[in-house]
Amino acid sequence: MVAGLALTALTTCALAQAAKPNVVVLATGGTIAGAGASAINSATYAAAKVPVDKLLAGLPELSNVANVKGEQVFQIASESFTNDNLLTLGRRVSALVKQADVDGVVVTHGTDTLEETAYFLNLVIHTNKPIVVVGSMRPGTALSADGALNLLNAVTVAASKDAAGKGVLVTMNDEIQSGRDVSKSVNIKTEAFKSQWGALGMVVEGKNYWFRAPVKRHTAQSEFNIDSISTLAAVDIVYSYGNVPRTLFDAAGKSGIQALIHGGPGNGSVADRIVPALQELRQQGIQVIRSSRVPDGFVLRNAEQPDDKYDWVVAHDLKPQKARILAAVALTQTRDTKELQRIFWQY
Ligand code: DAS
Question: Which residues are designated catalytic?
Answer without folding.
Answer: 31
